[in-house]
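Help!! Second protein's tokens look totally different from the first
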Amino acid sequence: MSNESQRLAQQTMAFVLAGGRGSRLQELTEKRVKPAVYFGGKTRIIDFALSNSVNSGIKRIGVATQYKAHSLIRHLQRGWSFFRAERNESLDILPASQRMGDTNWYKGTADAVTQNIDIIEAYNVKYVLILAGDHIYKQDYSLMIQQHVQSGADVTVGCIEVPRAEASGFGVMHVDDDDNVLEFIEKPADPPAMPGHPDLALASMGIYVFEANFLYDLLRKDNANPDSTNDFGHDLIPELVANGKVVAHPFSRSCVRSSSEPKPYWRDVGTVDAFWQANIDLTDFVPELDIYDNEWPIWTYSELTPPAKFIHNEEGRRGNAVSSMVSGGCIISGAQLERCLLFTGVRAHSYSTLKGVVAMPYVVIGRHARLTNVVIDRDVVIPDGLVVGEDPELDAKRFRRTEGGICLITEAMIDALNDETAANA
């Protein structure tokens, strides 16, 4: 990080949009918003955007919350309370419906910022960085802010380079050789290619850098427009492409990689299949995402737990784990694990067999259970002898089974199964 980029980061406030429902994660977001969903053994999804901000030198952060926000707010209070006002640091939690003297939900991503302009203005920052709180990646935002200042852009848009064949599901930027955005096309059938890279397209990451006063004026003008949906991607960015200067910032220029990460890593874990895959990928011998990189730590709330424990050493009852990640407080009691990721405090009891299991905190797995390719929500108690992942039709009747063959198991599903078992007894 150069002195110039560090100076610019200190003049910036990061505004994290963390109110999305995340409905494609199905029952995983029944009790919590998508940014508060657990990821990687001990973190939550929002920790990546927040850690990127802190590691980039940005110490003024606002988090706009909305749907099912309690779990997220509790996590922020427990894990992100180390900011000190006397060091010009702050983290503001900004719930919807409590601003501007009304009871409005945030109507769109831009409205979430508009309703909190007075708070941002009070910090007297020079730049505002708008972030989505629901993606997994490591990025030095200071480099993007530096490009914004040097280019003289009205807004700089963070973009990921994706294969053109896969870009139709994104908002795609058509750019010239100097990264100026000529056109912003939502989910195009024929995505425009990057200059010099005919097989790649630039897709918006939902990350924007603005000069603060310019943003305030823009938001107030948009708020006064009755035809606007008050959304950055739908309203403000297309308007600036047509009438202003919009510059793209390819993610590859500022992504943070350790020596073991071969290429830029960015994931939207917005479906159960994608969520399971991204977690299980961390158990690879050399995973594409290095969460062990001490030079770019992922900050989070760390519970005080004893070390993981593996017990019993009898034939058929041996506590062991192969190609797996096992968090603190877990007890593997005579269970066999293969390519699993267990969050804090999971108990796997004797004679159980787990393959491709992502278990949230404090899951209990009963004796003789056989689980294959499942995601288990927090605090679920798996009954003795339960078999999941071997009979697709039966799994689909009992649990949420995805197109990719992953089963999501929640407490309500287990309660219904127990009621059915009791009724048939």
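Here's the second one for comparison:
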Amino acid sequence: MTSYIGRFAPSPTGPLHLGSLVAAMASYLDAKVHGGQWLVRIEDLDRDRNVAGADEHILASLRRCGMAWDGEVTWQTRRQHLYEAALAQLAEHVYPCGCSRREIADSQVNLQALQPNATLVYPGTCRAGLAPGKAARALRLRTPQQPRRVIGFQDRWHGHVEQDITAEVGDFVIRRADGFWAYQLAVVVDDAAQGITDIVRGADLLDSTPRQLYLQELLGVPHPRYLHVPVVANADGEKLSKQTGAAAFDNGAPPAQLLTQSLLPAARFLGLHVEAATIPDFWAAAVPAWASLLRTRHTQ
């Protein structure tokens, strides 16, 4: 079997909720089924949104759930040199952009008025250079224009997925106007540096994958395999998240309550039929249940 290295990469913007537990559980089980390593990476680049102590709370919650990671935990804020090196490597594909989000939104509204069925993408305003009076804000990566670039991949849960990144995305940001590195660049650099072979995460990131595959291609790093699990939604149909008021799943409850109110519901959401009286029993049953689910879905 090929060496397997997976990861769970939470942002320390608050404690883990049921949705993030589902993603953690899926990635952990997939690593166990494949006899691989499971790494934890704290994605703390967005310092304006970080909550003090949230990273340690996340790690403590994983421990209480019985999910032990391999090796040392890494923090993105300690890896700035890697992103700088990647930017230097991408220099010929990058340009400064002076557009604000409002200006981009306004241009998209105008485009829709002229072409009601037009795809809303960055219109390329600064592609040929900053307009007079504009100062550089973000850095964008050029996407191929002629011919347009369609990127496809085989997702282990959803099957074949493809996206025309020229028409559906346009030139995308790799360093934000606030100076922070964009998720798309950081995640590609981190996964390559850590030798990640398999990425298991929520389906809300499915749309980001073609951009990441394109960046991997430009940087000359391997393409991992991907599996995007369904995301948990709230009563209004919105993705469960800290922004939509998702409550922490681990509030210091005793192990028996953590099992019945968090681990078992997360497993059921993933389609796993697991019965257990203790947390160790849960994992002993959940690993083969995940293997069985993969066989059923033909996603090994």
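Reply: Different proteins will give different token patterns, so don't panic. The first strand starts at residue 5 and ends at 8.
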